[in-house]
Design a protein that fits this description.
Blueprint (H helix, E strand, L loop, with lengths): L25 H30 L15 H35 L3 H4 L25 H40 L1
Helix pairs in contact: 1-2
């Protein structure tokens, strides 16, 4: 008995499921939309692969493929090709929307141009130290600053404690001698 695969519906994410960071600005929404386009492209390639599988001769099917046979095979092909073109259209619309956003934002082409080969971006967070003279990220600088502030605080408390002990010893020594 052939197993009939239903095509996965095009999913629109429920706004309550989206991380609020992606709704904070128009640019963030555009970046999120491009991430969804990437997922759609993955599904598009999957649909293309399964459509090609449905076009092969049934005699060449592997047992684990569980592809439909006969008329069901043609129907499944039509469903997958229809979804393929729907996805392709939605990808086209999303990419055009993103390009329109870039044009409207008047982003300089130099900001979009790919960096030179071998370019290593500066660290933006905590990382392992590199060769001497390399730049550090803001987060690394903050952690370094906080560590030094903590060291200074600990040394200040240690000094105050030692001075207090010295004062107590001096006063008890003076009390015993008088």
């Amino acid at each position: 008995m052939a197993h009939r695969q239903e095509p996965a519906p095009i999913q629109e994410n429920d706004p309550s499921e989206i991380d609020p960071i992606w709704t904070s600005s128009r640019t963030a929404r555009q970046i999120y939309a491009l991430g969804e386009v990437e997922k759609d492209i993955t599904r598009l390639l999957s649909l293309a692969a399964s459509s090609v599988s449905l076009l092969t001769l049934p005699q060449t099917d592997e047992p684990e493929d569980s592809l439909p046979q006969g008329e069901e095979r043609s129907e499944q092909f039509v469903l997958e090709v229809s979804e393929y073109f729907e996805r392709l259209d939605s990808i086209q619309v999303a990419i055009r929307s993103s390009l329109a956003h870039i044009r409207q934002s008047r982003i300089a082409p130099s900001a979009i141009t790919a960096p030179s080969l071998g370019f290593v971006p500066p660290s933006l967070g905590v990382g392992l130290p590199r060769a001497a003279g390399s730049s550090r990220g803001l987060q690394e600088e903050r952690i370094d600053r906080d560590a030094w502030v903590g060291i200074l605080d600990a040394l200040t408390r240690l000094r105050a404690s030692q001075q207090h002990e010295q004062l107590v010893q001096t006063s008890s020594y003076d009390a015993m001698n008088t």
